[in-house]
Amino acid sequence: MNRMDMIGFYREMDPENGEVFRETIGDKVRDRAPYPKAEVKQYLDDGHPIFDIMEMTSDVIGGAFRVPGGSSLLTDGRFVWRVDLSAYVERYNLDLPAEFVEFAGAHAFAVPSVERVALVELSIAASGALGFHVAGGAGPAS
Asked: How far apart are the C-alpha atoms of 4 and 77, rounded to whole Å?
């Protein structure tokens, strides 16, 4: 598997998982987005789904919005983020890692295609990092 970077996982979203949810979201709020906001928001919304969670997340900063399936995961093949990250970008102009913005910009803010096998590997790696584990025999044989 290629390198995987998880972005948009903030301590306020899961204080019990300090290994992944390290940063404080309040430290990332900006008056203006330091990147082309509409393009980045669309890029985040267009990610490949790799892990679905049926739940509603609420804005952990100001309670301004709710996102169906907000903690579900999306990817572009390199970065993995939560579905609700785009709502935070839209509302709070969150400062995102420069490497992510550069990667998205290098692809003209269009999520690149990713082979199915890579998506499966990313799904397993990201869900494992979040504490979910594949149960042996729980699905069809490959």
From this structure: 8
